[in-house]
TrEMBL record:
Superkingdom per UniProt: Bacteria
Name this polypeptide is given: Site-2 protease family protein
Domain Peptidase M50, first and last residues per copy: 57-238
GO BP term, pick one: proteolysis
GO molecular function ontology, one term from the record: peptidase activity
UniProt cross-references to PANTHER family, sorted A to Z: ZINC METALLOPROTEASE EGY1, ZINC METALLOPROTEASE EGY1, CHLOROPLASTIC-RELATED
Cofactor(s) in the UniProt record: Zn(2+)
Native source organism of the sequence: Hymenobacter amundsenii
GO annotation, cellular component aspect: membrane
Length: 364
């Protein structure tokens, strides 16, 4: 029964990511729920409609699967009991909210935290780079875009066919410049129609998300292993506050209308209290931190017209603060890492910087 649950969640996630891939190709990404109506026709017809989506689903799930099994096998190697991956299907957007494993034993050392935390993103990163290499070296001819929307010629003249595009991290841009034929490389507004490339860039995004050096994320495990509990806690708090500060930029300014302040000020103040209260030890310090963050956001947004963060990160900040936690738990064995592991840890933080994009989807 336990294995049936893991397999069932994987197959359901394969279905939702395949449907998400279909919406990519058909220029309908981010449009309401996924097109489950494609499953109603006869089997042969449904299979033909779903096949294009597999070009997104298979490489994307391959990265997520390798990532989670990197954690799993490293935990088992260290004799730490862990569950198989639980995949999380999502009926919209990416088609999945990722995957997780559950550690069933206490982890006793900084080295074990470090090894288990690092193994997943490192393994997934290798596969993600392979996906991008394949995508950039197998670009279709430009006629492919004309089949998707005949008005592509108007776009070439300067009119975008839709108002969103995929954010491109530094590593994606570097591989594109190194490997892709410039004549076939899609414009950022058209990248959504290339499912293998989208799978690759979203894989980089998920890798970077896990490598955020905060709390009990994989990046938090790595920083804890590198720096120890006290310095890792300081780094985590500073980065978490900076993360929330960036996310809320542009929501309020001196130019905001009265309704924005009237209906939004109290909910946003309560949100800042809910997330920042976990960052400091006392309520008084939390109030001061909330005031400093909000005043800083208002000041910057008022001084620089058009300066905006990404409000979508606010939900993730709430999950970090109230669910996973901002601080990393201590281990009984606090011995520092070996030099080789320290080099690998700093390399993973560099990979984080190369894979991170402030917004995976940019809506104009």
């Amino acid at each position: 029964m336990r294995y049936a649950l893991h397999l069932g969640l994987f197959l359901l996630t394969l279905l939702t990511t395949t449907l998400a891939g279909v919406t990519l190709v058909n220029n309908q990404f981010l449009n309401d729920l996924l097109p489950f109506g494609l499953l109603k026709p006869p089997l042969a017809q449904a299979w033909a409609a779903l096949q294009p989506g597999l070009w997104y689903a298979v490489p994307f799930l391959a990265v997520l699967t390798v990532h989670e099994f990197g954690h799993y096998f490293t935990a088992r190697y260290n004799r730490i009991r862990a569950t198989l991956p639980y995949f999380i299907p999502l009926p919209l957007g990416f088609g999945t909210f990722g995957a997780v494993i559950r550690i069933k034993d206490q982890i006793y050392s900084r080295r074990e935290f470090f090894d288990v935390g690092l193994a997943g993103p490192l393994a997934g990163f290798v596969v993600a780079v392979g996906v991008l290499v394949y995508g950039f070296t197998h670009l279709p001819p430009l006629e492919y875009l004309y089949q998707i929307h005949p008005g592509f010629g108007a776009y070439v003249a300067g009119h975008a066919p839709h108002d969103f595009m995929v954010g491109q991290p530094l590593l994606f841009q570097g591989l594109a410049a190194l490997l892709a034929d410039p004549a076939l490389l899609p414009h950022p507004y058209e990248l959504l129609h290339y499912p293998v490339l989208v799978a690759g860039v979203f894989s980089l995004f998920f890798t970077a998300l896990n490598l955020l050096p905060i709390g009990q994320l994989d990046g938090g495990h790595i920083v804890y292993g590198l720096l120890g509990p006290r310095r890792a806690a300081r780094v985590s708090v500073v980065l978490f506050v900076a993360f929330i500060f960036y996310a809320g930029l542009g929501l309020f300014s001196l130019r905001s209308d009265t309704d924005t302040w009237l209906y939004g000020a109290v909910p946003y103040a309560l949100y800042l209290w809910a997330v920042l209260r976990r960052a400091v030890p006392t309520a008084r310090r939390a109030l001061l931190l909330v005031a400093a963050v909000w005043l800083g956001q208002v000041a910057l947004s008022s001084a620089f017209v058009g300066l905006e963060g990404n409000p979508g990160w606010l939900l993730f900040g709430l999950l970090l603060a109230r669910a996973t936690g901002i601080f990393h738990p201590p281990a009984p064995d606090e011995r520092p890492l070996s030099p080789g592991r320290q080099v690998l840890g700093w390399l993973m933080l560099l990979i984080f910087a190369l894979c991170f994009a402030p917004s995976p989807i940019i809506i104009q």
